Amino acid sequence: MFARRTVRRRRNADAKDPNLDPETSIAYNAGADHRFHNNSVLSADIQETIVHGVFEQLTSIVPSALPNLCLAPQPAVEGIFFPANVAKLDVKSVVLKYTYAPLKGFGFNVEASAQSSILSGFTVSGGVPSLPANNVQVCGPGTTVGGATCIPYTQGYGQFTWVQPGGTFVGLGVQYLGKNNAYFSPPFAQVDFVARHPVTRNTEIQLSVQNLLNTNNYGAYLPLPGAGTPLVANTTVGNTIQQTSFPTALIPASPRYVRLVLKLHLQ
After folding, report:
1. Residue 65: phi, psi to the nearest 5?
2. Is 159 helix (H, G, I), strand (E, B) or coil?
3. Which contacts (CB < 8 Å, 24+ apart) does range 105-111 have?
4. What per-residue confidence (pLDDT) applies to 125?
5. Is 63 helix (H, G, I), strand (E, B) or coil?
6. Which one of 118, 164, 181, 256 counts the least CB within 10 Å of its CB?
7. Which long-range contacts (CB under 8 A, 24 or more apart) does 235-241 make?
8. Contact of 175 with 110, CB cutoff 8 Å
9. Looking at 116-120, 190-194, 210-214, 228-232, which range is the least confident one?
10. Phi, psi of 141 (to 5 degrees)
């Protein structure tokens, strides 16, 4: 399968900004899958989207935080948000999946992806660092209005499953998050668990556990200062645009959640 899609989007008619031009995007994607004799399925998908004049919410660092950019025993403070057109956004992704799900016995599924989101064409004035930066992987405030966004270079998920003839299902999975993740943490993995058992013909009980090992929770629910992934920013030095970075806070992952559910099937 191969597809090409072109989209031209105008700025919000209810909140017009005379300084923003319409953005234009073009996307390509291709995918294929193959079913083997044991009914397992292997699939692959690739995609590229190029956006010209992309809308971006830029973030400039508050000047009082500038002395901390290199030494920075504490995270720098950010501020001054404003919308602008950026010359180009190039988003690429590759996804591979393999699933083996027999009606009974052991099965497994694995998925791996590599992706990037790179902006180019920023202009910087006044020597104040601004986010995001030119020609680097998108990460941090400014990539999405109102929040922090990181695009990991790599992600992955794997799960072992067991199915009994009577319908009992057990699954144990591991999710991997590569560098540049939304938690500003070095690469890490989280374990999940799920078990379902039919009680009657129309009811079943399910037990699920998210983040089984309580990985990267840090025992807290608020951002913590620490050795998070640096955000990369543009700044002007003389007549050239250079890149700099400042430390971010490690953001705790969701804590261990245990859910017990009773399901009723009406059909």
Report:
1. -90, -10
2. strand
3. 105/162, 105/163, 106/160, 106/161, 106/162, 107/160, 107/161, 107/162, 107/163, 108/158, 108/159, 108/160, 108/161, 109/157, 109/158, 109/159, 109/161, 110/156, 110/157, 110/158, 110/159, 111/156, 111/157, 111/158
4. 64
5. helix
6. 164
7. 235/124, 235/127, 235/128, 235/129, 235/130, 236/124, 236/125, 236/126, 236/127, 237/127, 241/122, 241/123, 241/124, 241/134
8. no
9. 228-232
10. -55, 140
Which residues, listed in sequence order, are joined to residue 175 by a DSSP beta bridge? 157, 190
Label residue 72 by pLDDT band (50, 70, 90). Answer: very low
Tokens 């989207």 -> residue: 49
Cβ(205)–Cβ(259) under 8 Å? no
Which domains occur in the chain, in start order? 2-264 (2.40.170.20)
Q: Which of 6-10, 36-40, 130-134, 234-238 is predicted with the least confidence, judged by mean pLDDT?
A: 6-10
Provide the residue type at 56 as one letter. E
- Quote the tokens at residue 258: 């245990």
